[in-house]
Design a protein that fits this description.
Order of helices and strands: EHEHEEEEHHEEHEEHEHE
Strand content: 15-25%
Number of strands: 12
Radius of gyration: 18 Å
Strand order of the largest sheet: 2-3-6-5-7-11
Structural class: alpha+beta
Shape: globular
Largest sheet: 6 strands, mixed
Distance between the termini: 20 Å
Helix content: 10-25%
């Protein structure tokens, strides 16, 4: 579902979340002219709405894009951007008046998930093939944003986040945002073995690659659903967008190498 009132191409989750839960996933598109100072359009990998500071894009362009994001969504605060490391560490946002909270806004913490219980904090993850997963409870008291690449998935970042939200799992909803699709995400035997060692049920998420019989196609959306269901979360939505195949709409690291990042945000209003 695209929210035309925010941006002609940004995505708002189609899920039965409470009215006070706000969530948006950006794309590489912006209704305004390209904001990157690079002149070559998509060829440089960044234009026109990159939100990451660590990918080699012009710093002032990224800050301009982040300001557009803040103003367009009327965010209550600057999102708490993470230094994502493909791990399972979680940032908890309960009191944004604390010194720790202020530090997070200037020094991104090394983590791959954020849980928020305050209206003054915006949880966000950046992706360009890895799966962004947004969660909330039915009562609208807690939200979370998770960066779920294959390493995070196999190590239990989703299970850890569900546990950290501290509400019954059956009361949680999860939305799976744009990520690389099962038809194109080729991985090696080592990745398959790592998943199967963590849980034999993951074996069903792999199919032999038709291009290279010694490799496999990994269904990350299916793996994420399996991980969430393993801890009792069954209200699952999204998962229909492929970053690799939709080149005009999404950044993809696997496709382009040098590229920008989209953002998936969730907060309490």
């Amino acid at each position: 579902m695209v929210n035309k009132t925010l941006n002609q191409d940004w995505i708002t989750p189609l899920w039965p979340a409470p009215k006070n839960v706000r969530a948006v996933s950006t794309t590489r598109q912006l209704a305004e002219p390209a904001t990157s100072l690079y002149a070559n359009g998509y060829a440089n990998g960044y234009a026109n709405f990159n939100l990451a500071t660590h990918v080699g894009d012009d710093a002032s362009s990224v800050q301009n894009n982040r300001a557009i994001l803040r103003n367009t969504l009327n965010l209550p605060n600057e999102p708490v951007w993470l230094n994502q490391v493909h791990g399972t560490d979680i940032v908890y946002l309960r009191d944004t008046s604390s010194g720790d909270a202020a530090t997070m806004l200037t020094t991104p913490p090394a983590a791959d998930a954020t849980i928020s219980q305050t209206q003054q904090a915006v949880a966000v993850v950046m992706t360009a093939d890895c799966l962004p997963v947004l969660l909330c409870d039915q009562a609208g008291t807690v939200v979370a944003a998770v960066h779920a690449g294959w390493r995070g998935l196999v190590n239990g970042v989703l299970q850890a986040t569900v546990q950290g939200m501290n509400v019954p799992a059956e009361q949680l909803l999860a939305w799976l945002g744009p990520g690389i699709g099962a038809a194109v995400y080729e991985v090696g035997e080592d990745v398959r073995q790592t998943f199967c060692a963590a849980d034999p049920a993951y074996a069903a998420m792999f199919k032999v690659s038709p291009a290279r019989p010694t490799h496999y196609l990994l269904d990350m959306v299916g793996a994420a659903r399996l991980a969430l269901q393993s801890v009792g979360v069954y209200q699952l939505y999204g998962g229909e967008y492929c970053t690799y195949q939709e080149s005009q709409r999404f950044y993809s690291y696997r496709r382009d190498g040098v590229t920008g990042r989209m953002a998936s945000l969730i907060w309490l209003s």
